[in-house]
Automatic annotation (TrEMBL):
Belongs to the class I-like SAM-binding methyltransferase superfamily. rRNA adenine N(6)-methyltransferase family. RsmA subfamily. This is Ribosomal RNA small subunit methyltransferase A. Keywords: Cytoplasm, Methyltransferase, RNA-binding, rRNA processing, S-adenosyl-L-methionine, Transferase. It catalyses: adenosine(1518)/adenosine(1519) in 16S rRNA + 4 S-adenosyl-L-methionine = N(6)-dimethyladenosine(1518)/N(6)-dimethyladenosine(1519) in 16S rRNA + 4 S-adenosyl-L-homocysteine + 4 H(+). InterPro entries: KsgA/Erm, rRNA_Ade_diMease-like_C, rRNA_Ade_Mease_Trfase_CS, rRNA_Ade_methylase_Trfase_N, rRNA_adenine_dimethylase, SAM-dependent_MTases_sf.
Amino acid sequence: MRKHIPLKKFSQNFLIDSSIVKKIVEFINPQLNEILVEIGPGLAALTRPVCNLIDELIVIEIDKYLLERLKKCSFYSKLIIFYQDAVKFNYLKLFNKKDRLIRVFGNLPYHVATSLILNLFKNIKIIKDMNFMLQKEVAERLVALPGSKSYGRLSIIAQYYCNIKILLDVSPKCFRPVPKVDSIFLNLTPYTNFYPYFTHNVKVLSYITNLAFQKRRKILKNSLGKLFSEKVLTTLNINPQERPENISILQYCQLSNYIIENNIYCKSISI
């Protein structure tokens, strides 16, 4: 089979370490009755061993040359292929067709990882879990706690929806071409029975966190001043002098709920 030249526009770094592949497949633990969706099968490093364990795998790939390679693979008959951008893919339509929760996994292209994950959160009720290889910086942002440099809007939204576990640190030498960054494989499992956080409307939470972190060095009384007076912040036990990275997810949920409960109008929010 002709050697595939990685395309920079798709941020292609192919996983080549067989021991890492084995560990990842063990972490995913594919089962016959599950609906599994792989984003970006690439050179099929994960696709092949997963297909050895199940009868059907849905793959989403934007590189038509990689799709042509898949046609020559022995497991091709097990694949349901979508030649699409995974960020724009209709996961709800797939769920409605299969009538089962979806498990999503993949070695995500670094340039779309954040937007892809945020888009998947919009479909969180139809997702059983997500297992992704990510650039270390993105993974650290997902799991970051208040007070750290990595903590921000992505941390808050991700942890609002999911329990997140780092499963594996992966060296650049496990990929071809070798990226300039380390990677992390992690699991995101949506909360089902126990929800540690509550907001009446996650769109409001998203809006507030976006506003707060647009200029993260600003203190809250300045960054959120058009929504909350110093008196209101103090009443909610939130220090107006604090910077956004020092405010907990629970506190951001408090702010979100205050807006809803007090009918504060924000034309920028589509509620």
